[in-house]
Every structure is written in C-alpha cells, then in structure tokens.
Amino acid sequence: MEYSLCVFVLLTTLSSVSPGQFPTPQIIKDWVDHIQKDLIALTDKASGLQDLIQIYDKHKTHFSVESNNARKLVATAAGNIEKLLAKRSEALKVRSPPAFAML
C-alpha cells in the first residue's frame, strides 16, 4: 500500500473517533496491526524479497546448503588477498623503471 493511502486510511480511522473520547485499546490495536501489515508489505516490495524468492525457487536445484568453518573461510580469503596484493606489487616493480634512471 502506498504511503499516502496509508495516511488516508489512518486519518479516516482517526476521524471516526469523537473529539472527547480517546480510542479504545482495541481500536489502537487494530491501527497497530494495520500499520504493521502495511510496513511489512512496503518493506517486502522495496527489498525485492519476492523477486529473490522467485529466483531461488526457479534455480533451487543449483543451490546447496552446507556447513562451513568461518575461521577457515576468513583465513583463505585473507591469504588470497595477500597473494593478489603481492602479485600487483611485483608487477609494479617490474613495470616502473628505477627512480634514478629518470634523472
């Protein structure tokens, strides 16, 4: 539900309460439930959750759930990054002439 529509529904509900009377706990609970449903719907739409669910359902045969060792994954990633940086550093050393040769 659009934001403006939510506000309209809330204002119409509020206008049904007489000015001298505070809303009953049940009316307040109904408002909260309605607002909560609207927020969930808006969040799902904005996040693309339904699209992700459809993509997963379409391709679920390609996915698997496996346990892993977080420390090992981090160590592997760190090692890969160090190797990459070392290769780039070496490549820069090979490509650039010594500083004194430029004088």
Quaternary structure state of the chains depicted? single chain
Low-confidence stretches: none
Structural class: mainly alpha
Global mean pLDDT:
83
Number of helices in the DSSP assignment? 4
Q: Which geometry do the CA atoms define?
A: elongated
Number of domains: 2
Name the descriptors:
0% strand, elongated, mainly alpha, single chain, 2 domains, 4 helices, 103 residues
Structure in words:
The protein is mainly alpha-helical and 103 residues long. The chain has two domains: 3-62; 70-97. It has helices at residues 3-15, 25-47, 49-59, 70-95. The longest helix has 26 residues, at 70-95. Keywords: Signal. Residues 1-19 form the signal peptide.
Write the SSE topology.
Layout: H1 3-15, H2 25-47, H3 49-59, H4 70-95
What is the compact description of this entry?
With about 100 residues, the chain is mainly alpha-helical.
